[in-house]
Every structure is written in structure tokens, then in C-alpha cells.
């Protein structure tokens, strides 16, 4: 049996590192940084990690808002969404994640797009 995406991303420890990097990249990304101004960064990083852990097959059950509820009325543009996805890909690269896993994550993010962009 092949390893789950959760395992291939380094389990909880690896995903927490990736998630922290994603949030840090978002904060440095001029295209989307303003969206995170005033955020509780500790809580944001924990929520991103919980979402990744649960969504990748990990044991933790995500109890946060679903994507639509979390982004409703934010009117996120395609450009902002792609900037965020680019940050995720950069974080994966920085953490030595392979092409197969990056492809799987990219697929997930493209499937979530309708729940985030323009809602």
C-alpha cells in the first residue's frame, strides 16, 4: 500500500512547517499581504496546518470553517488566488516536497477555487 499524502508531506511536523512557511510567504507577498493584516498569526498558522493535515489524510479532524464560509464576501480575485497558490508551491519547494505531491496539492487547490474566488 502506498503512503498517504499526509505521510509523504512529512506527517504533522512536516505539514506544520509547510503551513508556517505558506503563511509567512503570504505576509511577504505584495499581492495578498493586505488580506492578512491584523490576523492572529498563531491561530492562522494553526488553522492552515489543521486544514492541510486533515485534507491530506492525517488523523486530525479539521474543525474550522469550510472554504466557502471562510472566504464568503471577501471577493478574492483570480490573481489573488493564484498568488496564494504560488506561495503554497514555493513553500512545498522549500521543504523538499516532490513533484508528485506538488501535483496532488495543486489539483486540490484548483478544485477549491470555486469556493474561494469571487464569493
UniProtKB/TrEMBL annotation:
GO biological process entries: oxygen transport
InterPro entries: Globin-like_sf, Globin/Proto, Globin_bac-like_CS, Hemoglobin_trunc
Cofactor: heme
GO molecular function, one term: metal ion binding
Residues given in the record as heme binding sites: 71
Keywords recorded for this protein, A-Z: Heme, Iron, Metal-binding, Transport
Pfam families reported in the protein's UniProt record: Bac_globin (PF01152)
Top-level taxon of the source organism: Bacteria
Designated name of the protein: Hemoglobin
Amino acid at each position: 500500500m502506498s503512503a498517504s499524502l499526509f505521510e509523504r508531506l512529512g506527517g504533522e511536523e512536516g505539514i506544520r512547517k509547510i503551513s508556517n512557511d505558506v503563511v509567512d510567504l503570504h505576509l511577504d507577498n505584495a499581492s495578498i499581504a493586505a488580506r492578512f493584516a491584523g490576523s492572529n498569526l498563531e491561530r492562522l498558522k494553526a488553522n492552515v496546518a489543521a486544514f492541510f493535515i486533515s485534507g491530506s489524510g492525517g488523523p486530525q479532524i479539521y474543525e474550522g470553517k469550510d472554504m466557502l464560509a471562510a472566504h464568503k464576501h471577501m471577493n478574492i480575485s483570480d490573481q489573488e488566488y493564484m498568488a496564494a497558490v504560488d506561495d503554497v508551491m514555493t513553500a512545498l519547494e522549500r521543504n523538499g516536497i516532490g513533484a508528485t505531491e506538488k501535483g496532488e496539492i495543486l489539483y486540490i487547490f484548483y478544485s477549491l477555487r470555486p469556493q474561494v474566488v469571487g464569493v
